[in-house]
Specification:
Blueprint lengths: L14 H11 L1 H19 L4 E6 L5 H9 L16 E5 L4 E6 L2 E5 L3 H8 L15 E8 L10 E4 L7 H13 L2 E7 L6 H14 L5 E5 L7 H8 L2 H9 L7 E5 L1 H4 L7 H11 L5 H84 L11 H31 L7 H10 L17 H15 L5 H46 L2 H11 L13 H28 L14
Parallel strand pairs: 1-6, 1-7, 2-5, 7-8, 8-9
Antiparallel strand pairs: 2-6, 3-4, 3-5
Length: about 575
């Protein structure tokens, strides 16, 4: 019966998937997965088989193995005796080695030496603790041992003793390729045995490969043996009730067989020889199930790695988001502060420049000559103030735009420039140029003097001219004084108008600040996209391995079907 893979059908990680794994998770992980899959396949295809002898303590496992080996090698007793698994293989030279926590220890080959290592109960009748430091005893026998290259028999500790020994028996049974369950005829299939076998089926995908009912005869004779066999159906029914109706059942009296006639020992050996083949249905089921479990564990590991990576990526994204929010808040605060400072500095300069506009217009009025009363001074002041306000608006736009770019904010647009320009317009500026009537006297006095001189020739002319000249001089002085007062009043009003404009503009500072602050909002910062490849490749690996595991599980279940009463065909490389 072939295994369910040939060539391209062998469970493996496709080359492209391995390349993607290496690219996203490193060469080491890709190689680990490849090697783990390969080990699972090779283990399932190994030529030799490990047959574990299990059962209740003192059910006769060690006695049965001694009978098979044709000697008295393994310690036996009516009380729990074997506390350490004993692995038996065939070889050219007898050898006993104990595998301990400290390393391997060579033992003398014989019952006494083995008893000192594996026996649960010491000579004083007390349980020994030192057996827990021995992992396994490995025995090489030269005759009567398991047939076939790489095959071994394992004498397992009995169940229903201490919890530690029970657990060691369960681990030993699960690690084997086939379980031979030795049933004590005196107490067949206790509750503990039934539970143990149920758990074993869950772990390995199959129950015991063979039930060996060990008969404790009242007298180790052929007649006693035949009387026992007459009750064989009772034991078969008990075993069938476990749900193992297809499992073979053979009968033996190990104690009686040790002393002479066969007593069922030949049947046991025939079944053991069959279990030595890797194609035996039970062996095949266990191995496929074990390979499926290995692949399922790899699949679960990939899923766990994927979930862990997903959490790490989300946590990293969360930290980036928190950092970005903190940085964005800091940038926004910096944007507000710098904008407010720029505007405050600009408005401070604006006040000085607007007042300077008033002084400039006052200078236009001069210190002599006539004053213009056609509104030119007010127009000049308005034009000058408008120019410095426009200059400030442009300056603020440039400076705030630079800060916005620096702090990752939207720069102010043309609509903001227009709105700021409107807010920086102080309105129509008026300027009062006084017009004192006395100021016209100078022209009238000159005309009168000319007329008098030109038309009057009277006696005492010198006296008259002197009087007129004196009157004219007084009129001119009065007119100059009036004009000077008008000029000073006009200049003062120009300064006053400029001061008023400066104060009005200063009240516009909060509005201008709000215009810029409202327009310059933070730009959305695009977070770097999370690379989905590392997660996706783990998903694909999980799905691939899980599908392979399910395929092997189905093949193992199918292998269970043709077990009853059949012997596996011979195969090269047993």
């Amino acid at each position: 019966m072939a295994y369910p893979w040939h060539g391209s059908g062998r469970p493996a990680v496709p080359a492209e998937l391995r390349r993607q794994l290496a690219e996203s998770h490193g060469d080491a992980y890709a190689e680990e997965v490849r090697r783990s899959v390969r080990v699972a396949v090779r283990t399932a295809q190994a030529s030799g088989t490990a047959v574990v002898f299990g059962g209740h303590f003192s059910s006769g496992k060690s006695t049965l193995l001694n009978a098979l080996l044709g000697g008295d090698l393994l310690p036996t007793d009516d009380f729990p005796e074997t506390g350490v698994p004993c692995r038996i293989v065939s070889g050219a030279r007898e050898r006993a080695v104990a595998a301990t926590a400290a390393g391997t220890v060579e033992l003398a080959f014989g019952r006494e030496a083995l008893s000192g290592v594996v026996s649960l109960v010491g000579a004083d009748g007390e349980y020994r603790e030192d057996v827990h430091g021995v992992h396994e005893v490995r025995l090489t026998v030269t005759g009567g041992g398991p047939a076939g290259r790489g095959c071994c028999w394992i004498d397992s500790p009995g169940i229903d003793d201490t919890a530690d020994v029970h657990d060691r028996a369960a681990r030993t049974a699960a690690a084997g390729d086939a379980l031979v369950w030795v049933v004590d005829s005196r107490r067949p299939l206790s509750v503990g045995e039934t539970e143990f076998l149920r758990e074993h089926r869950e772990r390995t995908g199959t129950g015991a490969a063979l039930f060996v009912v060990n008969a404790f005869l009242s007298e180790d004779t052929t007649a006693g043996w035949q009387r026992f066999l007459s009750r064989a159906d009772y034991f078969r029914e008990r075993i069938a009730a476990l749900g193992d109706a297809e499992t073979e059942v053979v009968f033996v009296s190990a104690r009686a067989a040790s002393g002479g006639p066969d007593f069922g020992l030949g049947d046991v050996r025939d079944r053991l020889d069959a279990l030595g083949l890797r194609t035996h249905p039970s062996v095949r089921t266990v191995r496929l199930h074990r390979a499926a479990q290995a692949l399922a564990r790899l699949a679960d590991d990939a899923a766990a790695r994927r979930d862990r990576l997903d959490r790490e990526m989300k946590e990293a994204a969360r930290r980036r988001s928190e950092l970005e929010r903190a940085e964005a808040a800091a940038r926004a605060e910096c944007m507000r502060n710098k904008t407010a400072r720029l505007i405050a500095d600009g408005f401070a300069r604006l006040g000085h420049e607007v007042r300077a506009c008033g002084s400039a217009v006052a200078a236009e009025m001069g210190d002599s000559g006539d004053l213009s009363r056609d509104g030119r001074y007010a127009a000049s002041l308005s034009r000058r103030v408008e120019q410095v306000c426009d200059a400030l608006a442009d300056e603020l736009m440039a400076a705030v735009t630079e800060v916005a770019r620096e702090q990752l904010h939207r720069p102010p647009g043309a609509d903001v420039r227009a709105a700021v320009g409107r807010r920086l317009h102080p309105g129509e500026l008026t300027l009062n140029v006084p017009d004192t009537p006395l100021g016209k006297a100078r022209g009238g006095a000159g005309g009168a003097l000319g007329a008098a001189i030109g038309t009057m020739v009277l006696p005492g002319i010198g006296t008259l001219i002197g009087a007129l000249a004196g009157s004219f001089t007084g009129a001119v002085s009065a007119a100059d004084a009036a004009l000077s007062r008008d000029r000073e009043g006009a200049k003062a009003d120009a300064l006053r108008a400029a001061e008023d404009a400066a104060q009005v503009l200063d009240t516009r500072k909060p509005t201008v600040t709000r215009l810029f602050t409202k327009a310059c909002t933070p730009l959305p910062v695009l977070e770097p996209a999370t690379d989905p490849a590392p997660l996706a490749v783990l998903d694909r690996l999980h799905d691939h391995l899980w599908a392979q595991a399910e395929r092997l599980t189905a093949a193992g279940a199918q292998a269970c079907v043709p077990r009853c009463g059949r012997t596996a065909p011979a195969e090269d490389g047993r």
